[in-house]
Each structure stands twice: as C-alpha cells, then as structure tokens.
Write a structure and sequence with these properties.
disordered N terminus; about 45% helix
Length: about 270
C-alpha cells in the first residue's frame, strides 16, 4: 500500500508540474504578459542604454513578438549564468539573452529559429577595399598580410588556426598584431601598421559608421555560429510561435531593417 501511495503522489506531482507547463503560450495570452529573463550586458543585441532602458537588436524582436501577441513584455534581469537554470526551473516564461546554438545546450533546452549569427569579419582601409572584393574572404587573400586583433580573443585564436592552415599549404602566414582594445586595433589599421582588423561583424559595424569613407568591412572569414533564444523543451507551442514570428519578420523586411540598424549588416536566417 505504501508503495502504491508513493507512486500515486509521484504521478500526481508530475501531472501537476506538466499541467503547469503544458501550454506556456496559453498562459501568457491569458495573463496578458510575458516575463523574459535577460542579461542586458551584450551590445548590440541586448544592453541597457543611457536612460536605463533595455534595448538592442534581440530586444526589438522580442518586443515585436509581444506586440503581435497583444501582451505586455516584462524583463527580469538575470546574470547570464542563471539564464538557462532560471528558464528550466520556470522563473520566467522565456529567456531573452542571445545564445550561441550548441549541441550541449540543446540537450537541456529547445532552441528557437535563429535570429542572428556570430561571424568574424575583415575591416580594411577604404582605399584597400577593392583588393578584397568577393565573399567570403579566402585565407589566400589574407596570406602575408598583417592582421590586428584583441589579445586573448577568439579572433586571435582563429588567426592562429588560419596560419596553421596556410603553413600546411606552403603559403606565407598572417602577421598577427595583438593589442588590448578594439580602439587600438583600429588605430593600428589607420596608421598602416596593420593591413586589416579581424573581429565580430557586429563589433566592426559601428566602427564603419564612426569613420565613414575611411574604413570598410571587406567580408567574412572563418566559421560562423547561429544565435537564438531557447524555451523549455515542453514549450513547443511557444517555441513555434517565436520561430514563426522571426520568419514572418524576415519575410516582410522588418528583421533585415533591425539587422541594418543594430548590426550594420544583413543576412538570411534559416527556417
């Protein structure tokens, strides 16, 4: 009897838990608000502006989604390390921090349709832009050149891996100039101590705006990784609704407009 009673309680508890999370999308519509966990410290995707308001590329997409649902959007500031644990435990309806899509994370959560990608680009002086025409940029085009990067960064590690490939092919390596800050990489480029700057395209885009006619993004180089939000695995309807909205924004041009506004570039996200 005791075993049967314990089993009944366990099944009842599981049923109540599943019922609580059976249809988060319906709960959101019923309550009239969606609570979103976010770490607003990642410009230009999600950050806090001078007025103390949370803004950015991904934030604008989430705001559009909430508006389409006709519900109020409430952000719950959370340290990045607590985003996925908070999502899984039900601390908020959804998470709004940009996540690199990885197999390890996919074991725990369900990713939405991606809305962005992280990929590194090559920034050159405007006078040299013609030399890099054509995308993507091949390693052969970078062979023998001087590249400025931030020290201990992923772009620096990528240039080192590029050099290993160039060495195996019998090509001249890239001379890597490692400095402390982004501003220093640009200074190195403008004073002609470097032939190009290598960094994330979203990081380079504001530099192009800041120095119009002086620098230009020549193209992308190296591997890319998609960025998306995640929902709890059982929240299939919410996940689909978010994905459908992202794809609808892409179709009507709204997503491209936001990409241009916040990232300084445009790209097509996969369905």
């Amino acid at each position: 009897m005791r075993k049967n009673a314990l089993l009944f309680v366990a099944l009842l508890s599981a049923g109540l838990f599943n019922a609580a999370h059976a249809d988060t999308l319906a709960d959101i519509k019923s309550s009239g608000k969606i609570t979103v966990g976010i770490d607003p410290t990642f410009p230009p995707y999600e950050f806090t502006d001078d007025k103390g308001e949370i803004t950015g590329y991904s934030v604008a997409i989430m705001q559009s989604f909430a508006q389409q649902l006709g519900v109020k959007l409430e952000f719950q500031k959370t340290a990045f390390s607590g985003i996925l644990p908070g999502l899984i435990s039900g601390s908020f309806n959804a998470e709004g921090s940009s996540l690199n899509v990885t197999a390890e994370r996919a074991k725990k959560v369900l990713f939405t349709v991606p809305y962005s990608k992280t990929v590194n680009g090559v920034l050159v002086r405007q006078s040299d832009a013609q030399k890099f025409s054509g995308a993507p940029i091949t390693l052969e085009k970078l062979s023998g050149l001087r590249g400025a990067v931030k020290s201990t960064s992923v772009p620096e590690q990528l240039l080192k891996s590029f050099n290993e490939t160039l060495k195996k092919a019998g090509k001249a390596p890239i001379t890597i100039i490692s400095v402390d800050t982004l501003d220093q990489t640009v200074s190195t480029l403008m004073t002609k101590r470097a032939d190009f700057v290598f960094d994330d395209i979203a990081v380079l885009a504001p530099i192009v705006k800041k120095y119009p006619g002086k620098v230009a993004q020549a193209g992308e180089a190296g591997p890319s990784q998609w960025m998306a939000w995640a929902t709890r695995k059982e929240d299939l309807s919410l996940n689909k609704a978010i994905g459908d909205h992202i794809l609808a924004m892409q179709k009507n041009g709204a997503l491209g407009a936001l990409q241009k506004q916040y990232l300084g570039t445009t790209f097509t996200v996969p369905a």
